[in-house]
Amino acid sequence: MRTQHFDTLIIGAGLSGIGTACHLMRDCPDTDFAILERRQQIGGTWDLFRYPGVRSDSDMFSFGFSFRPWNGLKTMADGESIRRYIEDTAAEYRVTNKIHFGVNLSEANWDSAQQRWQLLGERRSPAEEGAVIEPVQFTCNVLISCTGYYDYQAGYQPEFSGMHDFQGQWIHPQHWPQDLDYENKRVVVIGSGATAVTLVPAMAEQAAHVTMLQRSPTYVLSVPAEDKLTHWLKQWIPEQWAYGMARRRNITLHRWMFKAAKRWPQLVRKLMLRGVRKALGEGQNTTHFTPRYAPWDQRLCAIPDGDLFEAINAGKASVVTEEIDCITESGIRLKNGDHLPADIIVSATGLKLQLLGGLALKLDGETVDTRNRLTYKGVLMEGVPNMAWVFGYTNAAWTLKADLAAGYISRLLNHLRDTGQGQFIAVDKENCVGDSSVMSALQSGYVERADHLLPRQGTRYPWKLLNDYPKDRKIMLEAPIMDGILKFSASCVAEKPSAEEETAPTG
Predict the structure, then answer these.
(1) Does the keyword Cell wall biogenesis/degradation apply (predicted)?
(2) DSSP-derived secondary structure letter, 53
């Protein structure tokens, strides 16, 4: 089996992977790198999810790349527009031909003797070329994981009593059938998160009726579908300035909102519930949008121009807050005795978390227990050499932190080049071990279910996350690389691959 060697390998060709690759092209032009992508297309999340109405849950001005800002007026863009934006960015920065599609990795092992990563997996050819699967092996000096944090193969599906008795169609949004006909059908969407509040108004346009069945309420915030201020500014100043101003404004507003929610939770709660009452109108039941927890203990659900509330007011959708007793042949029996008839049940029950795309991470053949590892600046894993991961914010637009992480990695690679070093490793010399995970800012069910997988935060920086964009930006992009925690050493092997290895062109 031929081994392909690169200076740097990026796992994943989604938003984070393409963003990181673009940073390398801009800031580390001499680095020989490739991207390994399991799927056959660019886009990651935005290629996977194809359910009706799929869209961003963050505003696009802060969700877009810093080096190629979003230049549309939609506050929350649809999934296909985002996928196309990622694809166009890859083409503009000439990284498309560096992607190896269909590569499913199973193991990444750091070989201390060779001081390089060894990656094993298989390559699946595109469907139109026939189902051919062959083993593949790659090696690299530096490994960057841009795989996000959830399992692409399957979403979270709780087991409901009687669910296999249902005679209608049972669907999980992560695997949406593109030929699904729901016109004039009775639909029940189980869930109350971003996916559910997106699906309900989108399906209500054609369905006979859509019911959102939730165990407990979520904060739902109506936002303008289009940025009218930026539209007005474009008439008077250059577009680039207008979009740049919109990005800076929204980043600041979101940060203020998060800080206010943590400092004055009751006031923010009161303001948000007032917005719900106004949107639903007099006489409507607002208890379905009155959560038991404080704002930002879980992610807020933003809806453009209150489309969910409009569907409810029009009688095309409704919300039921109750636990499920069992699934019947014709719908859902609730614990209060009510029965919800359904032709289609959509189980928008959340994600199943998975780190590093599911590959086994090893050091000299020994499996790394990620739960017992700290993260350094949210980018490196304690005690794991020459590896970085790009992990976005959970309390703001994902891309803001992903951009900073990619910028920091570029600085780190340039430091290796400029100093003639071959290895870096983050070392916790002061015993900063803490017990909270890197996603502890959220109390969502999917985070709690994955606590046994997630790396830890430390008791202080750089092992503790700041979740503060202005502070993170200054530290990641300006602070010295050498800080006494990050250790460097020279490589003991040649830069070029051995005789049995080669740097191969894109597969």
Answers:
(1) no
(2) T
Q: Token pair of 282, please?
A: 């007099």
Same fold, 3-152+352-502 and 172-347: yes
Q: Note the pLDDT tens digit of each residue in 390-423.
A: 988 877 888 999 999 999 999 999 999 999 999 9
CA angle 431, 433, 439 (to 5 degrees): 155
Domain residue ranges in the chain: 3-152+352-502, 172-347
Gap between the Cα atoms of 11 and 324, Å rounded: 39
User: For domain 172-347, is the CATH number 3.30.9?
Assistant: no
Q: Is the pLDDT of residue 95 over 70?
A: yes
**What letter does residue 357 receive in the DSSP assignment?**
G
Count of CB atoms situated within 10 Å of the CB of 268: 20
Find how far residue 7's CA is from the centre of its chain.
Answer: 26
| C-alpha–C-alpha distance, residues 212 and 317, integer Å | 8
For 29-126, strand residue ranges (E) read 33-37, 99-101, 103-111, 116-124
How far is the C-alpha of 20 from the C-alpha of 18, rounded, in Å? 5
Rounded Cα distance, 494 and 348, in Å: 51
**Which residues, in sequence order, are bridge partners of residue 456?**
374, 437
CATH number attached to the domain at 3-152+352-502: 3.50.50.60
